[in-house]
Amino acid sequence: MPIKQNAKTKFIPNPEQMALMPDISGNEINGLGETEARRSKPIYWQSPELTPFGPLMEWFYAQTPDDERMKAVQRHRAETMAVKIPPVANIQQEKNTAEWTDLVTEIGKQNGADIIGIAKMRPEWVIETFDVPHPTVIIIGVAMDFEELKTAPDIPAAAEVIRQYDRGHRVSRALTTWIHAQGWEALSFGGSGNVPILLIPPALECGFGELGKHGSIINREFGSTLRLAAVVTDMPLNTGNRDVFDVDDFCTNCRACEKACPPEAISPAKQMVRGVNKWYVDFDKCLPFFNENMGCAICLAVCPWSRPGVPENLIRKIAKKKIR
Ligand code: SF4
Ligand code: SF4
Known about the structure:
- By secondary structure, the protein is an alpha+beta fold.
- The chain is built from 13 helices and 8 strands.
- The strands form 3 sheets. The chain has a 4-stranded antiparallel beta sheet.
- α4 (68-82) runs parallel beside α7 (155-181).
- 40% of the residues are buried.
């Protein structure tokens, strides 16, 4: 069972968990302080044997509380995953790129996506040890319900995370099934595990929003509530553009997530990670709390952008300030 701790008291990790900590720092694996660009290495949510943090991942799964709501969402996700994706059809349908792009967006939304974006794949988005030759990535965004998210790190928020990853899987599997039926190659990567590519960089590239200080995307409509999934494909598709609305500046002055994070894993300043100066969450500090508190998500819950209706107001205020 997870050790429930008051988020305001100093967090003391469970020694049973700490005994599984590898000798290498997760920040080192992630390339914190490295000035050269390189592909990221497997660290979490891949097969446990690929990462020194594998035993901690297994420990996390073993902490799932014996709760009916958690069991129900897990059952539902297993049902989603059990549906087979048919192979690629023998006859390839032809349409122009704009038509395919409209159809992909429509099919994604019909199957439950809140946002669909498209980017050209880049080698640096493929995690080391994996090979993803497909030229295009479709990113799927599904938003968490704020009423559930705000209970983080308690069961309703944890169940909501699983429920939304289930939705991400359903959309990515439906899109893959549909692309196969058109005679094009596609692979479904629901966001909750065994994904061989990074999801945040292509999501930023195709217009999902900006990176927040908490290390997650802030979207102009759904704030910090998005969970991501993806499909890679060779279907010819048009790509989206970045969406910048100055969240980056906003994060410099807002300290809500930084102050709320129990293990103080969120840094007040950007840091160099694999050649990019960006917001970065300290992996070694976050992980023990995350593992003992059902995936935590406090930083997403306290972000002002997560509250329904607030992003619109904040964007207006930021734009007004810029004009003055
Ligand atoms: S998820 Fe990690 S970074 Fe976010 S509040 Fe929890 S411990 Fe801190
Ligand atoms: S809580 Fe504030 S600092 Fe943290 S990500 Fe949200 S806006 Fe940025």
